[in-house]
Design brief:
Helix content is about 25%, strand content about 50%. By secondary structure, it is α+β, with helices and mostly antiparallel strands. Strands 1-2-3 form a three-stranded antiparallel β-sheet, with no helix packed on it.
Length: about 70
């Protein structure tokens, strides 16, 4: 009987640990001005907690997300 209770407690702890794992991701807009022109790009960023405080981890760059003139659907 004690073996069954121990297994149930371990299973319960695993579920609780999984419930506290939350991933925060967002799209960051980057604007760069160079020689009078404005360039815009986007990046997928994950927010990570560290002992030194929250940090942002770059997952991938997405480039310019604006629709292009030649690629519009008809």
């Amino acid at each position: 009987m004690a073996d069954v209770v121990a297994r149930e407690e371990i299973f319960f702890l695993d579920i609780v640990e999984v419930l506290f794992i939350v991933v925060f991701m967002y799209i960051r807009k980057n604007v760069k001005k160079e020689k009078g022109k404005t360039y815009t790009s986007h990046a997928l960023v994950e927010s990570v907690r560290t002992p030194k405080g929250p940090r942002q981890k770059l997952v991938c760059t997405l480039g310019d997300l604006r629709p292009q003139a030649g690629n519009t659907p008809r």
